[in-house]
């Protein structure tokens, strides 16, 4: 248990579906992240929110839409995805700041686009 | 941009020592993280180096040379449960953590 909870753990969706991934952190952190992890590739930073404001958007296609209603919750809304979007999506949180910015990851949501 | 390099795979025997090297080219570098990730699980924090030198935590040690853009993770007295992927990540500003592709370590009996 890392203090970062993601749901659902597994999701299969068609290319025309709309679905959402949810993340909740119980650590009192002020920054939250979405990462994408594909097989044999480095983790890719998608979005960063600090104090509920988006501070980083790493050229992610618009079919991925993040939402951060408060500092404890983060969503990733999915719409008209492609099969190549199938991957493990990891949510993470941190306290922020220059030093000791340890990022704690959730268990991940395995997404399969069919 | 960010460039993080580490070996893809390493194999070692139970009880042995393994050293995983990582080189990085990162603008605005602040520090170097190591994470462990077991198959199907989330990455878990192992170490964070800001200053040059060796930091030891039990069986695991991490080293950093900022001038050389180089780090290593040293795993001693290997156990079967240490079989996992080890991720090197460079921290470059308040919120940017760039990862290498990971090194899969297999520990054999």
Please describe the topology of this protein.
The complex is a heterodimer of chains A (114) and B (109).
Chain A: E1 4-7, E2 10-13, E3 18-25, E4 31-37, E5 44-50, E6 53-57, E7 64-70, E8 73-79, E9 87-94, E10 104-105, E11 109-113
Chain B: E1 2-5, E2 9-13, E3 18-26, E4 31-37, E5 44-49, E6 53-57, E7 60-65, E8 70-75, E9 84-91, E10 97-99, E11 103-108
Parallel strand pairs in B: 2-11
Antiparallel strand pairs in B: 1-3, 3-8, 4-5, 4-9, 6-7, 7-8, 9-10, 9-11
What does this entry look like structurally?
The complex is a heterodimer of chains A (114) and B (109). By secondary structure, chain A is mostly beta strands. In chain A, 0% of the residues lie in helices and 56% in strands. In chain A, the strands form two sheets. In chain A, strands 2, 4, 5, 6, 9, 10 and 11 form a seven-stranded mixed beta sheet that branches. A four-stranded antiparallel beta sheet of chain A has the order 1-3-8-7, with no helix packed on it. Chain A is globular and about 35 Å long. Chain B has strands at residues 2-5, 9-13, 18-26, 31-37, 44-49, 53-57, 60-65, 70-75, 84-91, 97-99, 103-108. The mean pLDDT of chain B is 92. Chain B has 109 residues and is an all-beta fold. Chain B is 0% helix and 60% strand. In chain B, the strands form two sheets. In chain B, strands 2, 4, 5, 9, 10 and 11 form a six-stranded mixed beta sheet that branches. In chain B, strands 1-3-8-7-6 form a five-stranded antiparallel beta sheet, with no helix packed on it. In chain B, strand 6 and strand 7 form a beta hairpin. Chain A binds chain B through residues 2, 4, 31, 33, 40-43, 45, 48, 50, 55-56, 90, 94, 96-108, and chain B through 4, 30-31, 33, 35, 41-45, 48, 50, 87, 89, 91, 93-102.
């Amino acid at each position: 248990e890392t203090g970062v909870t993601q749901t659902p753990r597994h999701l299969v969706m068609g290319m025309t579906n709309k679905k959402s991934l949810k993340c909740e952190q119980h650590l009192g952190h002020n920054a939250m992240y979405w990462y994408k992890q594909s097989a044999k590739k480095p983790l890719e930073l998608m979005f960063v929110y600090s104090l509920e404001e988006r501070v980083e958007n790493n050229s992610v296609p618009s079919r991925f839409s993040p939402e951060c209603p408060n500092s404890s919750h983060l969503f990733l809304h999915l719409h008209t995805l492609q099969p190549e979007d199938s991957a493990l999506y990891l949510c993470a949180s941190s306290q922020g700041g220059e030093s000791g910015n340890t990022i704690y990851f959730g268990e991940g949501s395995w997404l399969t686009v069919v | 941009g960010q460039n993080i390099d580490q070996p893809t795979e390493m194999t070692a025997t139970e009880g042995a020592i393994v050293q995983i090297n990582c080189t990085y080219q990162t603008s605005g570098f602040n520090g170097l993280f190591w994470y462990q990730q077991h198959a199907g699980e989330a990455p878990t924090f192992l170490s964070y180096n800001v200053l040059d030198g060796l930091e030891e935590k039990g069986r695991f040690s991490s080293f950093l040379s900022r001038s050389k853009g180089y780090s290593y993770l040293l795993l001693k007295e290997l156990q079967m449960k240490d079989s996992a992927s080890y991720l090197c990540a460079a921290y470059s500003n308040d919120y940017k953590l760039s990862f290498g592709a990971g090194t899969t370590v297999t520990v054999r009996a």
